[in-house]
Every structure is written in C-alpha cells, then in structure tokens.
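Quick start: load a record and inspect it. Here is Two component transcriptional regulator, winged helix family:
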Amino acid sequence: MALRILLIEDDPTLARTLKSLLEKLGFEVLISFDGKRGYELATTEEFDLILLDFLLPSMDGESLLKSLRQAGVNTPVLVLTVVSDVSKKVDLLSIGADDYLTKPFHLEELLARIKALIRRSYKKSSDLLKAGPVLVDTSKKKVYVNDREVMLTASEYSILEYLLLNRGKFVSRDEILLKALSSRSQPESNSVEVLISRLRKKLGIRDFIKSARGFGYIVE
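Running the structure step on this input writes:
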C-alpha cells in the first residue's frame, strides 16, 4: 500500500510538479487547490502526511492548521512557505505544524523531511511490544524469543519493530523502506527481502513473519 500524501497548494504548476515527482517515488498524492477543500479531505480521509501551503484561497494555511488540530486530526503537517520571518515560523510550530520548509526548496530536502515526519509519526506508544513468544523492549532495543535474547542488526531490529507496531496488517516492501529504514542512509542490505530472510532465521519461529505476493509482510 502506497503512503498517502495530501498536498494543499494553490499553485497548479507547483502542485502538479510535486505530485508527479512524489508519485514516481512511490507515494500516492491527492491535491487540493484551496483551504476549504483541503480541510474536507484531511478530516474525512486517512493520510500519512499533509503538505500545506501557507498562503491559500478560501482558508489560509494558518487557519486551516488550527482547525485541523482543533478537530483532532493528528496527521503530520509540513508547511511550505515563502515567509522567512523566524517568529512567524515559530508561530506555525506552536499551533501544530510538525515542520516547515521555505520556498524555493530542493526536492531532496523535501523528501528527507517527508521521510523523517512519517517515521516519527509511527513511533511506539509503549516500551514493550509482544507477539507470541517474541518480546521487543523498544527503550533498550532488545529482542527476546521465549525469554532468550536474540541479537539483531539495526536494520533487522527496525523492521521487526515496525512489523509489530503494525501487527495484523500487511506492510509493503516500499513501506518498510520509507517508514522502518528511512533514518538509515545505508542499511546492512539494500534488499528488504534479504533482511526479512535473516530476521526469520534469527527468530527461528515458523511462519512468524508471513508474506503474500502483492501485499507484503505481516505478523499476525
């Protein structure tokens, strides 16, 4: 399943350019050209990230952001702004923005910010994750199988933690790369398949991590 981004941007050229570039990287991107429509989409559909232009027709970015947070929408929001005033940027963070990027920007920096925000939003809410005989202590980055500690590499650990955080649902190879391994510029292997294979062997539990072609991997 592709990661979903809501892009709220009133510049059609910029919006369509960003949509095309991000879709080539594997994201699903939905565009809104005005604030009110953006608010409707953000409050009725599920997104992994919102890219929000600061200057919008019908409802400006600041008002939209405040309304989203008041409505209980906790989706990470990255504000795109031409405003260079530091105090205004601080105000954006104080009313609920997770990050901001000043226009014009490089695509590489935008992508790095997107990955960081998505990964941050999926961090654990508990120090202990358990599935069957597997116990993960996320505060100490330790893994146990039937009370026996299993030594994993950093990338193997990140994948296992992410699978447990999403227990019961399939996660794709691209999702693992973006959400579980995004903070690692050079994982121990470029192949998610290789990492999963090594992880299965180290855990030593038959069918603990299941896979299905076209769906990805799952811990039930």
